[in-house]
Specification:
Helix content: over 70%
Largest sheet: none
Strand content: under 5%
Number of strands: 0
Structural class: mainly alpha
Length: about 160
């Protein structure tokens, strides 16, 4: 016959309450404020991707008046960088994320059109792609950075 140990009801309740309280502390300890989540995103790859995108998009802008053989590689680099940035977790701030997504979309469309035009040696297509980077991608990236800096400053 198995040995049964009787545990008083108050002891069982105390153990259950303690377990629930411990779980709540652990779960609560894992959560963070929206500002902390934003800072985590920024420090865990966001800052680096923004910097690299800025450099690559700036390079596309700089070579806009040069020849296709210079423009094409710049656009290909921006397209590759944009693909990497799109793999980041979403920015944990709705307004900043909206501008970020629009910036990435502008870069993707513009860089793809430019790179495709360069491959076909179509100067007008290259120019359209570069203009898209300049008018859709860069302004939205500037807005993203502005909002991001403001949000991080208020944490």
């Amino acid at each position: 016959m198995p040995l049964r140990v009787r545990v008083p009801v108050l002891t069982r309740v105390a153990v259950s309450v303690t377990a629930l309280a411990s779980a709540a502390v652990l779960l609560g300890g894992c959560s963070s404020t929206p500002a902390e989540q934003l800072e985590d995103w920024y420090r865990s790859g966001g800052e680096s991707q923004i910097r690299k995108l800025t450099d690559d998009a700036g390079r596309v802008n700089e070579v806009s008046m040069r020849t296709i053989d210079v423009q094409g590689p710049a656009c290909q680099d921006l397209l590759a960088r944009t693909a990497k940035a799109e793999k980041l977790d979403p920015i944990p701030d709705e307004a900043v994320q909206r501008y970020w997504k629009e910036a990435l979309g502008g870069f993707r469309r513009g860089a793809a059109e430019c790179a495709d035009g360069a491959a076909k040696n179509e100067a007008s297509q290259v120019s359209r792609g570069i203009r898209t980077v300049q008018t859709e991608g860069l302004p939205k990236l500037v807005s993203t950075v502005t909002l991001l800096k403001a949000a991080l400053a208020h944490k």
